[in-house]
Write a structure and sequence with these properties.
This protein is mainly alpha-helical. Helix content is 68%, strand content 1%. Strands 1-2 form a two-stranded antiparallel sheet. The chain is globular, with a radius of gyration of 26 Å. The protein starts with 5 loop residues before the first helix and ends in a 7-residue tail after the last helix.
């Protein structure tokens, strides 16, 4: 125990304690007399907190080698439990992810993140494993993708499934090409542009602003990589001049005939892809083949974005995206939670209204105010100053986790540590962004703050297994 990282435990205690105070503030009513009244959520959370402390202590006492040896066994058992959950769970707001065990309910998906992190760390720490190309990512992607699909499709829990995207940061740290991360960013950007601007027609010719904007973005990406991999002084001005001339001729022809600018833009992207392939083959700069294929794939991707949005996404998911992108104003429906959360946070001003004095939360204007929207209670009662302090504590906590990851002596420990840091970072960014209305409402908890035993115990497992592995780092490689 002498090698346990006590600053991390200090962060844990501070976040759990302040989260508990805010759960009491969010669920408080004027008839309550005690924060440990077990008839209200603060009292119930206190029991979960005691359980998490006992769990943390137990995890620190287990031999550190156990987590490596049993990683695959735990993964298989966890996967079987995830598959069985929809058949054992009750439907709660359309989700089949909660198993009732007498007076309590547990969500296995919260514990799956820890088990998947261990399994990924075990596989990527094999002696013969090295991340050299996309083939080496097939198994790691499968390890995170299978449980994510089970949670999203069978359990109908999109938010918990999206958390597994945090592992991309781990893969990037271990040597994954940044092209995959940039591809994900580009995919999200193209989806937003194609959906948000597809209803705006071009002022001339036929087509819409959404498709043309997507193609111009792809042109910029392809031109950037072509000039980076094959630097020639004449290349950039010639490509820009040809593109400008193409659009100019199209605008001139449009005086007599209607020009389909959507397809013209697609044609330019195809031409740039062909040019990239020619350069790649002639000068043997094979990295440009990736950008050429990327451009062609993205053309097809933008064509199906509208179909996915209108036919694959559920009505409430479409409405949330439309509200977020400003396509629809639904303050009484899908936009109600975010609107009320903004009002609550804004009303707190700089120093807040004071503990237990928040009117928006006390009068129950904010739904889920002690779970997914707990941060609005912080904003209303503690103000901008208190919210900033909370975010800074999270920032230093995550930076400290990264420093722990960097000092590990084994690949297994390092990968697991980065997975822990990435999961905490993902939860923080998505939850706070959701409450502030800059990200879609997908329903994931704020670590150690949101009410719920499953999330608290899941985060406790993540953190204290890391502390046990870190405490044993001096005994490793001897």
């Amino acid at each position: 125990m002498q090698n346990v990282d006590w600053p991390t435990i200090g962060f844990f205690i501070a976040l759990v304690f302040f989260g508990w105070l805010n759960i009491y503030g969010a669920s408080y009513n004027f008839d309550q007399t005690s924060i440990v009244d077990f008839s209200n959520r603060a009292g119930k959370q206190f029991v979960w907190i005691l359980g998490s402390i006992a769990m943390g202590g137990t995890l620190l006492l287990i031999d550190y080698k156990t987590y490596d040896l049993l990683a695959y066994v735990a993964y298989i058992l966890m996967l079987l439990l995830l598959i069985a959950t929809p058949f054992l769970a009750h439907d709660i707001k359309g989700s089949l992810s909660w198993i009732s065990l007498g007076p309590v309910s547990l969500q296995p998906a919260e514990f799956a993140k820890c088990i998947v992190a261990l399994a990924v760390a075990k596989y990527m720490s094999r002696y013969d494993y090295k991340l050299r190309g996309w083939r080496d990512l097939i198994v790691p992607f499968a390890l995170i993708g299978v449980p994510a699909l089970v949670i999203m499709i069978l359990q109908k829990e999109t938010g918990s499934a999206l958390v597994f995207a945090a592992f991309l940061l781990v893969f990037y740290r271990q040597g994954m090409t940044p092209h995959i991360l940039w591809s994900c960013v580009a995919a999200v950007t193209l989806f937003i542009l194609s959906i948000r601007l597809s209803t705006i027609p071009l002022p001339i010719g036929s087509g819409d602003v959404g498709m043309v904007s997507c193609m111009i973005l792809l042109m910029a990406i392809e031109i950037f990589f072509i000039c980076k991999e094959h630097p020639k002084r004449w290349q950039l001005p010639i490509m820009l001049a040809v593109i400008a001339a193409t659009y100019g001729i199209g605008a001139l022809i449009n005086i007599w005939w209607v020009v389909p600018f959507n397809w013209m833009s697609v044609g330019i992207v195809v031409a740039l892809s062909i040019y990239a392939m020619i350069i790649s083959l002639y000068y043997r700069r094979y990295s440009l083949i990736w950008i050429a294929v990327f451009g062609l794939v993205c053309i097809g991707y933008t064509q199906v974005c509208g179909f996915v949005f209108n036919n694959v996404l559920k009505p409430h998911q479409r409405t949330r995206i439309e509200v977020l992108l400003g396509m629809k104003e639904d303050l009484a429906g899908a936009g109600y939670n975010v609107n009320q959360a903004r009002i609550a946070i804004g009303s707190g001003r700089f120093f807040g209204k004071g503990y237990l004095k928040g009117t928006q939360t006390k009068l129950q204007f904010v739904p889920e105010q002690d779970t997914d929207f707990i941060f609005c209670t912080v904003g209303e009662e503690w103000g901008f100053f208190g919210s900033l302090i909370v975010l800074l504590v999270y920032l230093f906590f995550i930076l400290h986790l990264i420093s722990i990851a960097e000092r590990q002596r084994t690949i297994f420990n390092q990968i697991y540590a980065y997975a822990v840091a990435s999961i905490f970072l993902f939860h923080l960014m998505i939850n706070v962004g959701m409450v502030l209305g800059v990200l879609p409402v997908i329903g994931i908890p704020l670590p150690f703050f949101s009410y719920g035993g499953s999330s608290l115990w899941g985060f406790t497992m993540l953190l204290f297994i890391l502390l046990r592995l870190d405490a044993a780092r001096m005994d490793q490689l001897r």
